[in-house]
């Protein structure tokens, strides 16, 4: 019996959220007196996969089938299910990402496993029960959920736990084949078009995000958002009304009806902080709010607040960051 951790890779590197997932999985394995094996998906290098030993992973499985480079739901599900069966994994840990959400529900049916998404803490196993804490109501509340049955799937929310880092520890990487056929790639994308993201940083994976709202007054002022993002190496985002009136493209809209982000730093410029906006950003590690209205609701969710006019504050902030670079 082992714990299986699903590790997402992109451009040869393990995604940061997957380092957290690997750390979560290896700690669960330790609690249960077993080991954690990783199954890697996406484009990876052996050297980077081996470094998952730093997060406590004992062994990494990798299928180098080139069609697995981009996400294909059917093929990924079959691959992970096959790895779970090979490792006799009773617990599967994955990221609460787009891929994790899509694959997790399919895996749950295929493996007849119970599943909890949005999990924010290590499980409690008192009294023979297996209880996880998950975020509910757009992060406004938490629920303790008992995972029943023989097999359990846990989708871990980004930024919920610290990634372990035992420098220099490596894990063996084994090639693994799930004997995938053409039929498993029936839902493969015909073409992957990368969104044109200012600064070249993709929003869902970004560690730093600079976001603008209606307080920016118009698209002609977005150079301030872009300049700050560029100076920080951040992605840009916006509130819904901003994309509704085409000041910015829809793929930059964050919130309940847009993208959910969990960066280390989210800087909100001229955004009021409506509950629907907060739903997509409130798991950011540090939130900085710039708003000229001291009563703006966003200040209640902020770690740092600047009461001021964005057209006064942003140029000073950009200059200060440029000076540090
Ligand atoms: P406003 O509410 O107009 O706020 C602008 C802010 O800028 C104000 O706080 C003002 O004080 C400040 N300001 C103005 N000028 C300046 C200046 N010069 N300097 C500094 N500050 C300034 N919204 C989302 O963002 N994402 C969603 O996913 C989303 N989903 C929704 C789903 C539903 C079903 C509904 C009903 C609404 C949804 N909304 C969503 C809309 C949401 O309710 C708010 O209307 C929206 O977030 C407000 O956007 P805003 O803060 O940019 O604009």
Q: In words, what does this structure look like?
A:
The chain is an alpha/beta fold and 325 residues long. Helices cover 27% and strands 26% of the residues. It has 9 helices and 14 strands. The strands form 3 sheets. The chain has a 7-stranded parallel beta sheet with strand order 5-8-4-1-2-3-9, sandwiched between helices. It has a 5-stranded parallel beta sheet with strand order 11-10-12-13-14. It has a two-stranded antiparallel ribbon with strand order 6-7. Helix 2 links the parallel strand 2 and strand 3. The longest helix has 16 residues. The mean pLDDT is 94. Flavin-adenine dinucleotide (FAD) binds next to helix 6, helix 7, strand 13 and helix 9.
List keywords for this structure.
Rossmann fold, 26% strand, alpha/beta, five-stranded parallel sheet, 325 residues, binds flavin-adenine dinucleotide
CATH fold category name of the largest domain: Rossmann fold
In terms of structural class, how would the helical and strand content be classed? alpha/beta
**Major sheet:** 7 strands, parallel
Return the domain count. Answer: 2
| Number of strand segments | 14
CATH uppermost class of the largest domain? Alpha Beta
**Terminal Cα separation, in Å?**
49 Å
Q: Which geometry do the CA atoms define? A: globular
What is the string of helix and strand elements?
Answer: EHEHEHEHEEEEEEHEHEHEHEH
- Helix content percent band: 25-40%
Ligand catalogue: flavin-adenine dinucleotide
InterPro entries: DHS-like_NAD/FAD-binding_dom (IPR029035), ETF_a/b_N (IPR014730), ETF_a/FixB (IPR001308), ETF_asu_C (IPR014731), Rossmann-like_a/b/a_fold (IPR014729)
Family: Belongs to the ETF alpha-subunit/FixB family.
Keywords: Electron transport, Transport
Organism: Hymenobacter terrestris
């Amino acid at each position: 019996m082992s714990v299986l951790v699903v590790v997402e890779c992109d451009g040869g590197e393990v995604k940061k959220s997957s380092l957290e997932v690997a750390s979560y999985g290896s700690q669960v394995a330790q609690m249960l007196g077993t080991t954690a094996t990783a199954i890697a998906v996406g484009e990876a290098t052996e050297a980077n996969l081996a470094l998952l030993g730093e997060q406590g992973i004992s062994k990494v499985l990798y299928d180098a089938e080139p069609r697995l480079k981009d996400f294909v739901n059917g093929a990924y599900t079959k691959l992970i299910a096959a790895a779970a069966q090979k490792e006799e994994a009773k617990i599967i840990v994955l990221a609460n990402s787009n891929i994790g959400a899509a694959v997790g529900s399919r895996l749950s049916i295929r493996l007849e496993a119970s599943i909890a998404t949005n999990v924010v803490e290590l499980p409690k196993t008192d009294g023979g029960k297996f209880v996880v804490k998950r975020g509910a109501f757009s992060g406004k509340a938490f629920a303790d959920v008992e995972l029943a049955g023989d097999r359990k799937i846990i989708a871990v929310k980004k930024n919920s736990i610290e990634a372990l880092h035992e420098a220099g520890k490596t894990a063996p990487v084994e090639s693994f084949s799930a004997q995938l056929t053409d039929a498993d790639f029936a839902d493969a994308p015909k073409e992957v078009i990368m969104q044109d993201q200012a600064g070249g940083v993709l929003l869902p994976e970004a560690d730093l995000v600079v976001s603008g709202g209606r307080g920016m007054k118009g698209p002609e002022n977005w150079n301030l958002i872009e300049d700050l993002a560029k100076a920080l190496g951040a992605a840009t985002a916006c509130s819904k009304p901003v994309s509704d009136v085409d000041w910015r493209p829809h793929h930059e809209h964050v919130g309940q009806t847009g993208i959910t982000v969990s960066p280390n730093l989210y800087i909100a410029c001229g955004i009021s902080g409506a509950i629907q906006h907060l739903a997509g950003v409130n798991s950011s590690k540090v939130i900085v709010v710039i708003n000229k209205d001291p009563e703006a609701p966003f200040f209640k969710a902020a770690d740092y607040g600047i009461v001021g006019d964005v057209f006064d504050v942003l140029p000073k902030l950009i200059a200060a960051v440029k000076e540090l670079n």
